[in-house]
Amino acid sequence: MKVAIASDHGGINIREEIKKLMEEMNISFVDLGCECSTSVDYPDYALPVAEMVAKGEVDRGILICGTGIGMSIAANKVQGIRCALVHDMFSAKATREHNDSNVLAMGERVIGPGLAREIAKIWLTTDYEGGRHANRVEKITSYEQSLQTK
């Protein structure tokens, strides 16, 4: 598995924790920044990660900002992205099993580094169940594709 990870200025600390976790788990990753503590615009970091996932250059993406909200909104504008904003372990597991989420968003001002590591670990190691969930995910994909023809 290969993961793209990025944060804005509000998510730098948790991004560093998740990078350490992925190193411990022997997961390959590419870090797309940011490298500053001054205010930056979250779409500048969310969109490149989402594009990499959508193009198949990486398998999944992880985004961190102050709340995770802006990152998830921006990432979900990219066709083929199912970005889930997660702040608990149950949702981390459910979004992989049921929604086949391919991007995870978290908020550094909402959760601490320990919980963020646990969420990321669950999300990175949980497989998509398919089955009864596949039809629902396919409906989202079909809708996205129909927008291209309008």
Give a description of the structure:
The protein is an alpha/beta fold and 150 residues long. It has helices spanning 12-24, 43-55, 69-75, 89-99, 113-125, 134-148, and strands at residues 2-7, 28-31, 60-65, 83-85, 103-107. A 5-stranded parallel beta sheet has the order 2-1-3-5-4, with helices on both faces. Strand 1 (2-7), helix 1 (12-24) and strand 2 (28-31) form a beta-alpha-beta unit. The model has no long low-confidence stretch (mean pLDDT 96).
Average predicted local confidence, pLDDT: 96
State the low-pLDDT regions, or none.
Answer: none
Total count of helical runs of at least 4 residues: 6
Structural class: alpha/beta
Shape assignment: globular
**Rg over CA atoms:** 15 Å
Write the layout of secondary structure elements.
Layout: E1 2-7, H1 12-24, E2 28-31, H2 43-55, E3 60-65, H3 69-75, E4 83-85, H4 89-99, E5 103-107, H5 113-125, H6 134-148
Parallel strand pairs: 1-2, 1-3, 3-5, 4-5
Q: Which key features would you list for this structure?
A:
single chain; 150 residues; five-stranded parallel β-sheet; 5 strands
